[in-house]
Design brief:
about 400 residues, about 35% helix, L-amino peptidase D-ALA esterase/amidase, homodimer, alpha+beta, seven-stranded mixed sheet, globular
C-alpha cells in the first residue's frame, strides 16, 4: 500500500545516469496545497529560490513536483536558473498547466551544468508513466542510496481515515539544516497552508533536523509537505493528532536515511538528556555525532567511550563533568567525574550490536534531544573518494 | 643542533607502553619562567587544572615538566588528581626541589587509570638520563605520531643570539582550541612572564589554533613556553622580533602536526581571503577543513570542488555567492556565481600533488586567515577503529 488519494507518481530513466532511473514526478490533478522547508546553505542550488518563489506566487497551490537525480544543478548561476525555467515550461505545456503550477528539484553532483535537453526529452514519457504507485518515483530520486525510503501511516480523525505517505532519499552530505536532502510527505487530509507549514516545521525539528551522517549540509536540501485536500478537514480540534502523525512519518524517514548513510555499518541513537536548553542539547548531539573519533571507534566496535565525552566537552556549554553520566546501552560508564565500568568483555560484546545507544545525562535542566547518526567506515571514505 | 642554554632533557621507557619511550622530562636547574595555554574541553584531564594551579602558585617559575605518553590520565576524577600529586612529589624529592617546582602532563588514551607506580619507578632512571639533547624527550611524548616534530630558530637581538627550540606531538584528536595536544617551546632569552604569555597567545592564534586533523579538540591540549633567562633581555624595543620568531617556530610545529595527521596522504593549505572578520574567516576555514566530503575527495585525488563551496556555505556567514571566487592552486574554479573551469585533465593532474592549495576569496572585507589540514583516508579510519 504505497498510494495516497489525489496523487499520482512516475519515475523513469531519461539519460542523466547511465542506466538507473533519474527523473521523477509527483502530480496532483486538482492542485495540492504545498509547503516546504529548504536548505540554508549559502551556495544553495537555484532550485531553492525558484521553488520558494513559485510557492509564494501561486499561494502554495501546486500540481507538479519534477525531480531529477544525478545532477544537483548547483553552482550553475544564471544558466542553472534558465534551465529550471526551461524544464518547467516543458512540463507545464505537456500537462496543459498554467505558469507556476510546477516546481523542480535536483539532487546529485554539484558544479556541473544540468542536462536540460535530456530532461526535456524525457518529460513526455514521464507523464505517460503516471500511476498511483509511488515506487518508481522513489527509485528515480535515489543517488548513493542503497535502498528505497518510504514511510506510511493511517490515522483516524473524526471517524475518517487520514493517510500520510512520506518518501525521501539520502545518503551523504547529510546534516540537514532545517530540511533534508529531498523528502516529500503527502496527505489526503484537507489542510490549509498555514497549518501545513506549522506541521512541517514541528515535524522536521525532531526528525530531519536531528540526524547527521557527515556534518555536511547539502546545497539542495528540501522537504515538501503536500495535501490533496480530498479527505477530512483539519481544524483546531484535531490538528494535534495530525501533527503527531506527520512527525511520526518524518522520524521514520529520517531514521531510514541514517540506516542508509554512506558506508554505514551501525545505526547510532544518541540521547542528550536533562540539558539546560534544547539548543545546547542539539549542539552536544551534533558534536558527538559528527566526531570522526567517535564514529571510527563505533565502526571498529571499540568501546573507546572517552571519545564520546571528549567530543561532548569540546564545545562551549554548561556541562559539568561532575554531574554528567554516560550510558552505553544499559551500562553506566561514567559518573561523579570518573569511570565506573571497565568490564571490557561485556562492553566489547555490546559494541558488536548493529544498533548502538548512547545516553549522556547532563543533570542540568529538563531539555532532552534524541538524534541519530551512522559510523565512519572504509566504505564511506571509498564512496566519497571516488564520487564524481 | 637541538640544544638550548639552561635546559636539559630526558626520555626513557618506563613501562606504560610495551617497548617505546613513554616518559619525558624538561629540566631547568635555575628555574625557568613558564607560561601556558590549555585546552578548553569541559572534560579536561586533571593535569590541566593542576598545571594552571602550580604555575599560579609559583609565580610562573618552574624547574621541571614531566610528561608521560600512552595514558592521558583523563576522566579519572579524584584518583587522577591524587596520581598527579604522587608523581610530582616523587620527582621533586628525587631532584631536591620544593613543592610546586614541577608540573606533569599526559597524552594517550582517555578513561584509563594512570599507571602511577610504573611512572614513579621510572623517575630515578629519567633524572639520570638528563642531557642537553632534546631527541629522547621528543620520542617519549609521541603517541600515534610517525615522526619527531622539532623546530629551531636563532635570531639576533641587540647583537646577541636568541635561540628558540620547539617540540610537539600530534596526531589525532587535533583541532586545538587555544593550544595543541602537547607543545613545548623553549628560549634562552630573558623574558618576564607577562611578555611570555602575550608572545604565546599571539603565536598560537595563527599556528596551533589554525590547524585541524579531525575537528576533535583533545582533553589534554597544552602548549608551554619556557624561558631560561640566560640570554638577552626582551624589552619594548626588541619584543616584536622575539614574538615573530616564536610565532615562526609555532607555525612550523603546527604544520609538522598536520603533515603527520593520522592517515594523512595530503597536506592541505586553505586560505580564506578578504572575509568580513577574522572570526568569520576562521569559522569558514574550519567548516571546509573538517568536511569529510572535502577531505575524502582530496584523498581520492578528485577535484570535486563543489564540496568546498558547499562546506563553506553550510554555516552562518556573510558569504555572497556572487562575489566569491574559488581557486585550486593557480586555477580559478568559481566566479560570478558559477563554474569557470571544467578542464578535468588539468585539475585531475593538480590533485595528484602531495600539497593542495585552496583559496576562497570572499571579497567582503580585509580579514585573511591561512590554516592547514590533512585528508581523510582509509588509514585514518583504520587507526581510529583499532586504537584502544
Amino acid at each position: 500500500m504505497k498510494e495516497i488519494k489525489g496523487f499520482k507518481f512516475a519515475g523513469i530513466h531519461c539519460g542523466i545516469k547511465k542506466e538507473k532511473k533519474d527523473l521523477g514526478l509527483i502530480y496532483c490533478e486538482t492542485g495540492a496545497t504545498c509547503v516546504g522547508v529548504f536548505t540554508k546553505n549559502k551556495f544553495a542550488s537555484p532550485t531553492i529560490p525558484s521553488s520558494k518563489q513559485i510557492l509564494s506566487q501561486n499561494n502554495n497551490v501546486l500540481n507538479c513536483v519534477i525531480v531529477n537525480s544525478g545532477n544537483a544543478n548547483c553552482l550553475t548561476g544564471a544558466e542553472g536558473m534558465k534551465n529550471i525555467n526551461s524544464v518547467l515550461a516543458s512540463l507545464n505545456a505537456e500537462l496543459n498547466l498554467k505558469e507556476n503550477s510546477s516546481l523542480t528539484l535536483s539532487t546529485g553532483i554539484i558544479g556541473k551544468p544540468l542536462q536540460v535537453d535530456t530532461i526535456k526529452k524525457g518529460i513526455n514519457k514521464l507523464v505517460l508513466s503516471l500511476t498511483e504507485n509511488v515506487d518508481d518515483f522513489v527509485k528515480a530520486i535515489m543517488t548513493t542510496d542503497t535502498f528505497e525510503k518510504v514511510a506510511y501511516k493511517t490515522i483516524t480523525i473524526d471517524g475518517q481515515a487520514v493517510n500520510i505517505l512520506g518518501v525521501t532519499k539520502g545518503s551523504g552530505m547529510i546534516q540537514p539544516n532545517m530540511a533534508t536532502m529531498l523528502a516529500f510527505i503527502m496527505t489526503d487530509a484537507n489542510v490549509d497552508a498555514k497549518t501545513l507549514q506549522e506541521t512541517l516545521n514541528y515535524s522536521v525539528d525532531s526528525s530531519f533536523n536531528a540526524i547527521t551522517v557527515d556534518s555536511d549540509s547539502s546545497t539542495n536540501d528540501t522537504c515538501l509537505l503536500l495535501s490533496s485536500n480530498t479527505g477530512v478537514k483539519i481544524n483546531n480540534n484535531n490538528v494535534k493528532a495530525f501533527k503527531a502523525a506527520v512527525k511520526e512519518v518524518s522520524v521514520e524517514l529520517a531514521k531510514l536515511i541514517i540506516r542508509d548513510g554512506e558506508g554505514a555499518t551501525k545505526f547510532i541513537t544518541i540521547n542528550i538528556n536533562n540539558a539546560s536548553s534544547e539548543i545546547e542539547a542539539k549542539n552536544i548531539f551534533y558534536s558527538i555525532a559528527n566526531s570522526p573519533l567517535v564514529k571510527t571507534a563505533i565502526f571498529g566496535e571499540n568501546p573507546n567511550f572517552g571519545r564520546i565525552l571528549s567530543s561532548a566537552g569540546k564545545i562551549q556549554s554548561n556541562i559539568d563533568p561532575d554531574k554528567t553520566t554516560l550510558w552505553l546501552g544499559e551500562y553506566l560508564l561514567y559518573e561523579n567525574g570518573s569511570i565506573t565500568n571497565q568490564d571490557k568483555p561485556v562492553l566489547d560484546q555490546y559494541m558488536k550490536n548493529k544498533e548502538i545507544n548512547i545516553t549522556l545525562d547532563l543533570h542540568l535542566g529538563d531539555a532532552c534531544v534524541t538524534g541519530w547518526t551512522s559510523d565512519l567506515s572504509h566504505d564511506y571514505v571509498q564512496i566519497n573518494a571516488d564520487y564524481n
